[in-house]
């Protein structure tokens, strides 16, 4: 047993150096070399200032922007230092109340939309940082955004269509719209007239 | 369920099926000491390891020495992880300045046990707010390799027990461990990490980035060496996320394609091990039989889960939500799920991660529908034998095979045999011991936590508390839950199930970061790991000593559809008989209440008062 302990100690030290320092070190080096932008978090800059990451959702509340899903990350939502889902179960009164409040808010924000509300617009994501909304959710908000920007609805819909990401390899995952990318495109193409 | 969703699941299964044989052939060659195509590139690292650690490659160990080596390795691993966490404040690579005090002794104990036992239950709020890059790399990533390799080693020892005869040696733990790391875990992780990074998984050592959002708010973007940890987290069926949200976090799992690779990494070694078992014992049909039993249980589970999640929550549907899938949105239960994965990929992930002892999540199981959440829970309770964890899955299903031939033997009145070895009193006793220990740990801890009360701290004459209540805030332990009613019970049951099963996923609403939960769940993880694999190593030792018996007309064939049925039946029967009462009080009753629109308010206990 004593001999096993010696071997065990040496093996633990060796693995710590090999898999805990050398392996992540080399991966960091190679990734920084090959995929620098992605390895650093797919950051998006505007006028030299980091405005977020293309992979991480952020809050939008103004009517001229598309709104993301509700978020349970941090106190105000979309806090990447506190990624989390709501962890509310299906029979929790709090979940029901929260979704009801979100539904009322959604109807108030989008008076021109009368169809059933897409599920993703009322539910919090698993990470609380979901950068996407469903295509249906974006389309439900299109009229509000168009009015707030004094733009034609077809132009907005065209922007949604061009911001839509399709399933990977044609079958993996779901079609989705990146909210930050769409809102950036809006600001570029239809600057809000004051 | 949508056609595309079913298609995704089918393609996933077919790719695993295609990888099983090549992976199994490779591992069989590797662990039988033959040269593989990787030897020219990596043999030097293997011999270098032996030289540095003083291991003699050609020495073999008896089952007791093999077990002692495993335990000694686990003890030092535990100490390393514990100490590195407690000292993170003075160690390098800590750009956010996380202090030692963020990791209390009970939390450090829980996390160290968790990563050493391949559980990766995470009691802390989230890596992004608790642990330095150094701890994530040099403590947690290392255990992702070490605990996975140790699991493969145990499976190898048991396989050799069946394959060999009249010897008392089972191989060398250190050699098996080294070969797993050098030829499988490291090279595959390296390539997978690069692919993940190309998809957007971050890999850097920068301080967190401060962004100013489009609406002018401040957003702090957590950073870190994520891709390197992500790869081995999946390949080693560890499952401990770099971030709190685990594989749901866009920096851990940014695209459906990355998600697909994560799913493949979970099953590739466990599925390959079934084939390797067949090769090493010299009867490939036996390997395919185990594979088929696993595949059957996997497919039933995944479609039940997918069906339940797509069906959604009828109570919420009344609020005017679209619940049916359309071209432009997924419908179903989207609470706690990411858009890019939708319902199908989330249900698939939840099933795969609990079939195996992975425990990574890309959706929050706590917010699944009752039946959708029942599948992961029951998967773990079966002992994670549906392909299972790396190594742990194979030795778990072989345990069930022993029980299955024993039951069949009783029915027809013959001495049970499995792959040419007589299964006698000792083997059956040890197998039952392993099953009883896990059931005991899950059910007793869950029962105690459901009823235990913690007294208020005693007060002095002025009414000031003299002693803080150490174990848990005063009041019932159920005050730590985020949900009440049957769902609250499910949270507790899931916690001890996940700990004992060395899974690590959670019904995450439970606040388990108190000494009471940290220590009891830590104990559950230790029991589930070591009191499960030590009896099996004893079985391996006893089997290796036995002579192989020839196949006769009276031998019950342990390959083919009949035995697949028997094996599946045994897993289901043992699981159902043991856990049905507990499941009835949790997810099953919740399902019926949900159908009737019943809602539960959380009883508000002031935590920390």
Describe the model.
Chain A starts with a helix and ends in a 5-residue tail after the last helix. In chain A, 47% of the residues lie in helices and 9% in strands. In chain A, strand 1 and strand 2 (49-53) form a beta hairpin. Chain A has a three-stranded antiparallel β-sheet with strand order 4-6-5. A two-stranded antiparallel sheet of chain A has the order 1-2. Chain A has two domains: 2-36; 41-189, no CATH class. The model of chain A has no long low-confidence stretch (mean pLDDT 95). Chain A is mainly alpha-helical. Chain A contains six helices and six strands. The longest helix of chain A is centred in the N-terminal third of the chain and has 33 residues, at 2-34. Chain B has one domain (3-322, 333-595). In chain B, helix 15 (425-451) packs antiparallel against helix 16. The radius of gyration of chain B is 24 Å and the shape is globular. The two termini of chain B are 47 Å apart. Mean pLDDT of chain B is 95; it is low at 604-609. The interface between A and B is large, with 109 and 135 residues.
């Amino acid at each position: 047993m004593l001999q096993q302990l010696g071997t065990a100690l040496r093996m633990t030290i060796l693995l710590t150096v090999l898999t805990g320092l050398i392996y992540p070190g080399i991966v960091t080096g190679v990734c920084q070399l090959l995929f620098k932008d992605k390895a650093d978090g797919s950051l998006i800059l505007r006028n030299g200032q980091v405005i977020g990451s293309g992979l991480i959702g952020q809050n939008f509340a103004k009517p001229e922007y598309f709104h993301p899903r509700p978020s349970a990350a941090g106190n105000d939502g979309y806090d990447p230092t506190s990624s989390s889902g709501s962890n509310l179960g299906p029979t929790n009164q709090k979940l029901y109340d929260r979704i009801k409040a979100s539904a009322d808010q959604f109807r108030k924000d989008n008076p021109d939309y009368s169809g059933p509300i897409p599920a993703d617009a009322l539910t919090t994501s698993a990470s609380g940082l979901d950068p996407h909304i469903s295509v249906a959710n974006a389309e439900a908000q299109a009229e509000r955004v168009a009015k707030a920007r004094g733009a034609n609805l077809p132009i907005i819909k065209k922007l949604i269509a061009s911001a839509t990401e399709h399933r990977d390899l044609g079958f993996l995952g779901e079609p989705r719209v990146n909210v930050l990318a769409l809102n950036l495109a809006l600001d570029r193409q239809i600057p809000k007239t004051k | 369920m949508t056609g595309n969703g079913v298609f995704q699941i089918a393609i996933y299964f077919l790719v695993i099926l295609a990888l099983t044989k090549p992976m199994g052939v490779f591992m069989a060659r590797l662990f039988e000491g033959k040269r593989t195509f990787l030897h020219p590139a990596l043999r030097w690292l293997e011999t270098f390891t032996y030289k540095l650690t003083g291991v003699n490659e050609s020495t073999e160990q008896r089952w007791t020495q093999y077990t002692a080596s495993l335990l000694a390795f686990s003890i030092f691993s535990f100490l390393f992880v514990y100490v590195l966490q407690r000292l993170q404040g003075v160690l390098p690579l800590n750009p956010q300045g996380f202090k030692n005090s963020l990791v209390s002794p009970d939390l450090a104990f829980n996390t160290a046990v968790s990563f050493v036992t391949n559980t990766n239950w995470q009691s802390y709020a989230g890596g992004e707010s608790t642990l330095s890059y150094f701890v994530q790399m040099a403590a947690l990533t290392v255990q992702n390799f070490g605990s996975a390799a140790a699991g493969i080693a145990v499976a190898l020892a048991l396989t050799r027990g069946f394959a060999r005869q009249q010897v008392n040696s089972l191989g060398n733990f250190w050699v098996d461990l080294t070969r797993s790391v050098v030829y499988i875990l490291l090279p595959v992780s390296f390539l997978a990490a690069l692919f993940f990074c190309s998809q957007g998984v971050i890999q850097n050592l920068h301080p967190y980035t401060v962004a100013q959002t489009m609406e002018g708010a401040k957003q702090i973007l957590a950073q870190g060496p994520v891709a390197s940890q992500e790869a081995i987290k999946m390949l080693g069926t560890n499952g401990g996320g770099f971030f709190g949200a685990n594989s749901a976090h866009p920096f851990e799992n940014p695209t459906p394609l990355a998600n697909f690779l994560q799913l493949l990494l979970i099953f590739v070694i466990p599925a390959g091990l079934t084939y390797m078992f067949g090769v090493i014992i010299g009867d490939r049909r036996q390997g395919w039989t185990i594979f088929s039993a696993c595949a059957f249980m996997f497919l039933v589970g995944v479609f039940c889960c997918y069906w339940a999640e797509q069906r959604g929550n009828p109570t919420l549907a009344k609020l005017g939500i679209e619940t049916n899938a359309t071209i432009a949105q997924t419908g179903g239960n989207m609470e706690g799920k990411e858009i890019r994965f939708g319902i199908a990929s989330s249900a698939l992930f939840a099933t795969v991660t609990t079939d195996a002892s992975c425990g990574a999540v890309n959706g929050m199981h706590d917010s699944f529908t009752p039946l959708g959440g029942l599948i992961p829970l029951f998967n773990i309770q079966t002992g994670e034998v549906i392909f299972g964890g790396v190594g742990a899955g194979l030795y778990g299903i072989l345990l069930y095979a022993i029980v299955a031939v024993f039951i069949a033997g009783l029915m027809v009145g013959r001495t049970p045999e499995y792959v040419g070895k007589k299964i006698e009193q000792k083997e059956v006793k040890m197998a039952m011991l392993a099953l009883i220990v896990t059931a005991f740990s899950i059910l007793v801890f869950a029962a105690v936590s459901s009823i235990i009360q913690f007294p208020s701290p005693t007060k002095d004459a002025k009414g000031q508390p003299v002693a803080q209540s150490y174990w848990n805030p005063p009041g019932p332990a159920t005050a730590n839950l985020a949900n009440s009613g049957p769902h609250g019970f499910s949270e507790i049951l899931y916690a001890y199930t996940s700990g004992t099963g060395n899974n690590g996923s959670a019904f995450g609403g439970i606040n388990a970061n108190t000494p009471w939960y940290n220590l009891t769940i830590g104990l559950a993880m230790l029991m589930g790991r070591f009191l499960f694999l030590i009896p099996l190593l004893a079985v391996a030792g006893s089997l290796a000593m036995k002579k192989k018996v020839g196949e006769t007309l009276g031998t019950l064939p342990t390959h083919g559809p009949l035995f697949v049925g028997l094996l599946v039946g045994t897993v289901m029967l043992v699981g159902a008989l043991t856990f049905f009462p507990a499941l009835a009080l949790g997810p099953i009753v919740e399902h019926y209440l949900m159908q009737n629109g019943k809602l539960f308010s959380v009883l508000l206990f002031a935590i920390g008062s």
